[in-house]
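Quick start: load a record and inspect it. Here is Serine hydroxymethyltransferase:
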Amino acid sequence: NAPLADVDPEIAAVLQRELDRQRGFLEMIASENFVPLSVMQSQGSVLTNKYAEGYPGRRYYGGCEEVDIAENLAIERAKSLFGSAYANVQPHSGASANAAVLHAIARQGDTVLGLSLDHGGHLTHGMKLNFSGRLYDIVAYGVDPETSLVDMDEVRQLAREHKPKVIIAGWSAYPRKLDFAAFREIADEVGAYLWVDMAHFAGLVAAGVHPNPVPHAHVVSSTVHKTIGGPRSGFILTNDADIAKKINSAVFPGQQGGPLMHVIAAKATAFKLAATDAFVDRQKRTVRGAQILAERLTQPDVAEAGITLRSNGTDVHLVLVDLRGASIDGKQAEDLLHEIRITVNRNSVPNDPRPPMVTSGLRIGTPALATRGFGDEEFTEVADIIARALLPNPDVAALRARVTALADAHPLYDGVESAGQG
Ligand code: PLP
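Running the structure step on this input writes:
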């Protein structure tokens, strides 16, 4: 039981450098966050040793008394947080949760209607190389080219025309709230299941700063590691007893073998934290931060450089920058921000004239910085740094110094000396 630094100094060095990177950069990838040490301790624990195929009280292995308690805590906390009757907390990731959802409520070849990838949907919503695109007959809706909003008339028209078995409401890159009630009305009209993938905005839902899809959808899937800020993993909720049974069977034995009990314990811890006032405050700062970013990035100096925001603003945790009219492209903007130590990801915009490895967009999110303690003042400073970086002839050294001042003022994992905290 020698320490990692002795057993594997190369990996120990990777962990240490990654901790330094996370501390020194401002993390603005919209799907990332920082888990608290308590979550890391649950995740880096002896529960990683345990096989527990099956569900609490109905396992295919002995010795599951303690992991049963952990999984039941995660289930009960998920149900209470989102107000659902049933929860499955075993999916290893968001993508495996989504595979289980389709496995449960559709059959190979069934028609599935979802938001197209290049308009903000996720790979698992029907991208042709993904299992979803290979196994199901995918019809995609998009966003309106003028407003960048999902057009419910188009969703209704496609649903009437194609009679899908499943309609997906959910996104990876969309700056507004979806109308879950309208989606459900359309699903009911054509006899489809409504599946909401709230992977991105689940933390906002848990905090009550975004509508809850659970009362509207037949089934809701999510990740735990984005706005919630828990371990990298997924979960599935429903209010329907019959669908719950199908979901359980689709996850195990349908999709997975042994559940990751250490991750499930960490989910329980994350869900407990998500029920606190501090969590609600953090989600409010997250949304406010994105709005501050949107305000700055729609000022005249930015507009004059041909830079706009899709939908002209946001009501969630991210903004989508549109660089189609700018001289700088998505790749150059991502690289430039990296140079000043802000991490974002480039993103295609609908009908992007530039290739997918270049793109004409940026997705910028605020969850990780809100977790780091940022409020109005810090987000105002970050927003100005980003705006000035994207304008012609930025002073890279000066902007990097401003980033470093913010990072230094908000220490991450303060007092932690080693990045491996299990
Ligand atoms: N669903 C949505 C909407 C997502 O944005 C993502 C992740 O980006 C996923 C599912 C998949 O999650 P994971 O990366 O954990 O498989």
